[in-house]
Amino acid sequence: MKLRIGRMLVGATALASAALATTAGGASAAGWDHSFGPNMPGSSGVRVYVEERGDIVKLCDTKSDGYSAQLEIGEDGYSSYTYSMSVTTGAGTCKTHRAADGAKYNLDENNGVNFGFWAKGPNSSASWENDR
Fold this sequence. Notes:
This protein has about 130 residues and is mostly beta strands. Helices cover about 10% and strands about 35% of the residues.
């Protein structure tokens, strides 16, 4: 997977939360390598699924609360976010990106990937090592 410059490094608070979320939120949903949900008190309405092969990231809005699900994806060593996405079509709907969608969706192999995600309430975060 190709290198990119100009990525924003995820803030210290997000990284600290991400370290905790990796163990707490790393349980896989059926068919996905990783599944992440809200991990901050008061947070709700968002779910993130990751398949490492093909860099498939799926963001879902899980609650009818009037808030859109949002996701920012960053990679270790870059100074800006790799990309962001949002689901604005309501509860029960999802949006998916994969490496085949273009260069910015092609995450670096053997690199840490950091997620900041939210819908209603405080931002949640998670991270994983892209090693497949």
